[in-house]
Write a structure and sequence with these properties.
The complex is a heterodimer of chains A (112) and B (116). By secondary structure, chain A is mainly β. Helices cover 0% and strands 51% of the residues of chain A. In chain A, β9 and β10 form a beta hairpin. Chain B is an all-beta fold and 116 residues long. Classes of the chains: A mainly beta (112), B mainly beta (116).
C-alpha cells in the first residue's frame, strides 16, 4: 500500500531533550516536506527536499533540522525542543513539488 | 511573500444548503492551486486542483475555478451532505520565473460542519 509513515504518533518530552521524528515513504517520490499545524494558522512549511541531499527552508525552519540521505526517508530533528514547538506535525511526499501531496497521519508533539 | 487567505473559522450549513468557501491568494508568480481536505485523526488529502488560469477543479460535487483576474480559488458546492464535514485547506505552489521553488503555502483552514 502506498503510504507515508511517521513515527511516533504521539510524543511528550521535556525542554532541551533532543528528539527525532521519522518519516518514510514507499512511493519513490522525489519531493518530501514537513509541516506543522496549529489552530488558526493552518499548515506551515518547515523544511522541504526536492531530492536526495537537497533540502531547503520553508517558512518556519527555526529550531528544526532535516536530512535527506536516502530517497525514502526524511527525518525531522529537534536539537533542543522548546514549548513553542508543541504542535501537530505532518510529513508529506509527492512526485514533484507541483504534484499533489501524500500526507502521513501526523505526530502530536508536546514539549513541557 | 506569497500568501493564501480563506474563509475563517467554522461554516455551519444545513444538509442540502449551497456552499462557498472563499480563498484568495497573493503571489508574484504563476501558482498551481489546490484544495485539501482533512478528516479527524488523519493527514490532509488532495480534494481538487487547478494548474493554470481558467482551469476548474472538480471532485465529489465540489468545484473551484482558478481566477487569475481576481486571484481567487473559491470552493463551491450546490448541495452539501453531512459526510462533507471536515477541515478544508486552500493551497498554492509557487512555480517562479527561475524554476521550481518547492514552496507550498496553505491557508489557515476552514472547518465545515454540516447540520443534519
Amino acid at each position: 500500500e502506498a503510504q507515508v509513515t511517521q513515527n511516533p504518533r504521539y510524543l511528550i518530552t521535556v525542554t532541551g531533550k533532543k528528539l527525532t521524528v521519522t518519516c518514510s515513504q514507499n512511493m519513490n517520490h522525489e519531493y518530501m516536506s514537513w509541516y506543522r499545524q496549529d489552530p488558526g494558522l493552518g499548515l506551515r512549511q518547515i523544511y522541504y527536499s526536492m531530492n536526495v541531499e537537497v533540502t531547503d527552508k520553508g517558512d518556519v525552519p527555526e529550531g528544526y533540522k532535516v536530512s535527506r540521505k536516502e530517497k525514502r526517508n526524511f527525518p525531522l530533528i529537534l536539537e533542543s525542543p522548546s514549548p513553542n514547538q508543541t504542535s501537530l506535525y505532518f510529513c508529506a511526499s509527492s512526485t514533484d513539488y507541483n504534484s499533489p501531496l501524500h500526507f502521513g497521519n501526523g505526530t502530536r508533539l508536546t514539549v513541557t | 511573500g506569497d500568501s493564501v487567505v480563506q474563509t475563517e473559522g467554522q461554516v455551519l450549513p444545513s444538509e442540502g444548503d449551497s456552499l462557498i468557501v472563499n480563498c484568495s491568494y497573493e503571489t508574484t508568480q504563476y501558482p498551481s492551486l489546490f484544495w485539501y481536505v482533512q478528516y479527524p485523526g488523519e493527514g490532509p488529502q488532495l480534494h481538487l486542483k487547478a494548474m493554470k488560469a481558467n482551469d476548474k477543479g472538480r471532485n465529489k460535487g465540489f468545484e473551484a475555478m482558478y481566477r487569475k483576474e481576481t486571484t481567487s480559488f473559491h470552493l463551491e458546492k450546490d448541495s452539501v451532505q453531512e459526510s462533507d464535514s471536515a477541515v478544508y485547506f486552500c493551497a498554492l505552489s509557487d512555480r517562479g520565473d527561475s524554476g521550481n521553488t518547492g514552496k507550498l503555502i496553505f491557508g489557515q483552514g476552514t472547518t465545515l460542519q454540516v447540520k443534519p
